[in-house]
Design brief:
By secondary structure, the chain is of the alpha/beta class. Helix content is about 25%, strand content about 25%. The protein folds into two domains: about 290 residues, FAD/NAD(P)-binding domain, CATH 3.50.50; about 180 residues, 2-Layer Sandwich (Cholesterol Oxidase, domain 2), CATH 3.30.410.40. Strands 7, 16, 17, 18, 19, 20, 23 and 24 form an eight-stranded antiparallel sheet that branches. Strands 1, 2, 10, 11, 12, 13 and 25 form a seven-stranded mixed sheet that branches. Strands 3-4 form a two-stranded antiparallel ribbon. Helix 1 runs parallel beside helix 14, helix 5 packs across helix 14 and helix 11 packs across helix 13.
Length: about 525
């Protein structure tokens, strides 16, 4: 049976960081298990390849929720990356860290070492920012952060509309403040996607102390008494095992890290017995505390061929754009679609913005699963710190069965009322002359004016904006799963390192924070490793 110092489950955003950082020490052996493929195909590298992956099962788990009462009983869609790089291989590449308040709040909850000033160095270590050079940004890190290269005039139309509507403008959403409207930076390099795999893992696959196994679906954590000693996984129809001398590190994400713990007998004992699993440890917080950003999308038709869409002239334009991309890595194929955005407050008294906008240079409907003829633009508005809490549970004891995902969207009345306010703020920007002069129809929400009409359409059309967290919560309370060093309570040799450890959802996109978590975890693990060797 193969044996390594550390076995990592999940080659997503956090797992790639962990594998790269831990294997920097040639004396430490690392095995990384990933259920998907290598994540290095052209559909991943070309930024607009996301439109082929997001609505399909190409490099995508394409998960679904249970019916959501807050969304009129609809089943939600949850795309998650299934490849090296994980969701950083199919996301919109928006580089956002969250607000200072978020991390200071984590520390105030008792998570020592996780305040903003303490995590900022890990964001900086991770980053190579091509254009921003100040105390908030890094140069020389693995993750390339760049300005968009689309040259799309609708970026400026959006910024002008926000200014006309009376909102402040901002150059850097990750600097001293966050509130305002502007253009997003993206995790790209030379017009190509810079996933966690490309940034962290691919340059180091030659290391003799690093073994990466793709197509390896983890089934359960192996234990000797209460110590994690390895992983059982399936590859090519064979059930195999790999041993960990020191620690097993779960980085399978907010849905599959708790699923793997539950399959291993770690979770609420009564729920485990209901699906035929003998409990190893009663840890009721596993799979609880699920948080996600509920999101509504405004959709507008427009005649400009600077916008993505389906038409004869649009197809001719795309032929030219293919050549622009091939010859200089510029133009529409470098787009992350969500090119502009804003962080706004629905109440000036709030300590941080509570809604985020993503301005998309395309007709974006139903996660790109609904295709319409013509061209247009869209604008997402999501609630950043929802009060609603959901769950991830087992469907059965079969590792191949997908988990039962219940985000409980709009389950708390306050979330719906905050979304109503966010809807109104977004419409102010969308109705400003700089954008309104380009549109010729508003889909779905044109006649929605009263608060009750807004509530109705929010329940009819909201869904995720792809930021699930919290299901292996860090802390010390009754629902906490890991401590401040990400060690699973009540067990030895087992940590969770991904967005599932977030006690509360941060105000922004979660990809950069997932990498930050892994950067910090690598330091924590190396410190434990050094202490173990010196003992």
């Amino acid at each position: 049976m193969p044996e390594f110092d550390y076995v990592i489950v999940g080659g997503g955003s956090a797992g790639c960081v962990l594998a790269a950082r831990l294997s920097e020490d040639p004396q430490i052996s690392v095995c990384l298990l990933e259920a998907g493929g290598t994540g290095d195909s052209q559909v991943v590298k070309v930024p607009m390849g996301m439109v082929a992956m997001m609505p399909t099962s190409l490099n995508n788990w394409a998960l679904e929720t249970v019916p959501q009462p807050g969304l009129n009983g609809r089943i939600g869609y949850q795309p998650r990356g299934k490849m090296l790089g994980g969701s950083s291989g199919l996301n919109a590449m928006v580089y956002i860290r969250g607000h200072r308040w978020d991390y200071d709040h984590w520390a105030a909850l008792g998570n020592l070492g996780w305040s903003y000033d303490e995590v900022l160095p890990y964001f900086i270590r991770s980053e190579h920012n091509e254009t921003l050079h100040d105390r908030f940004h890094g140069q020389g890190g693995p993750l390339n952060v760049a300005e968009l290269r689309t040259d799309n005039p609708f970026q400026q139309h959006f910024v002008d509309a926000a200014k006309q509507a009376g909102f402040p403008l901002i150059r850097d959403f990750n600097g001293a403040q966050q509130e305002g409207a502007g253009i997003y930076q993206a995790t790209q390099i030379n017009g190509e996607r810079c996933s966690a795999a490309r940034a962290y893992l691919q340059p180091h696959l030659h290391r003799p102390n690093l073994q990466v196994i793709t197509g390896a679906a983890a089934h359960r954590v192996l234990f000797t008494d209460k110590r994690a000693t390895g992983i059982e996984y399936c590859k090519d129809g064979q059930i195999l095992q790999v041993r960990a001398r020191h620690e097993v590190l779960l980085s399978a994400g907010a849905f599959q890290s708790p699923q793997l713990l539950l399959l291993s007998g770690v979770g609420d004992s009564s729920q485990l017995r209901q699906v035929g699993i003998e409990p190893l440890l009663h840890l009721p917080g596993v799979g609880q505390n699920l948080q996600d950003h509920p999101d509504f999308v405004f959709i507008y038709r427009a005649k400009s061929h600077d916008l993505f869409g389906l038409s004869l002239r649009g197809s001719l334009r795309m032929l030219k754009e293919f050549w622009r991309y091939l010859s200089g890595r510029r133009g529409m194929l470098t787009s992350n679609v969500a090119e502009g955005g804003a962080f706004l407050k629905t109440d000036p008294a709030l300590p941080a913005p509570d809604v985020q906008l993503h301005f998309a240079t395309a007709l974006v409907e139903n996660h790109a699963r609904t295709i319409r003829l013509g061209h247009g633009y869209s604008c997402h508005v999501c609630l950043l710190r929802p009060k609603s809490r959901g769950t991830v549970k087992l469907r059965s004891a079969n590792p191949d069965d997908r988990p039962l995902i219940d985000p409980n969207f709009l389950g708390e009345p306050d979330d719906l009322e905050a979304m109503v306010k966010g809807f109104k703020l977004t419409r102010q920007i969308m109705d400003a002359p700089a954008l309104a002069e380009h549109r010729h129809a508003e889909l779905h929400s044109d006649n929605v004016r009263s608060d009750e009409q807004i509530r109705q359409i929010l329940r009819e059309r909201s869904d995720t904006v792809y930021h699930p967290v919290g299901t292996c919560m860090m802390g010390q309370g009754p629902l906490a799963v890991v401590d401040a060093e990400l060690r699973v309570h009540g067990l030895q040799g087992l940590r969770v390192v991904d967005a599932s450890i977030m006690p509360t959802l941060i105000g922004g996109n979660t990809n950069a924070p997932a990498m930050m978590i892994a950067e910090k975890a690598a330091d924590l693990i190396r410190a434990s490793h050094a202490a173990r060797l010196s003992a």
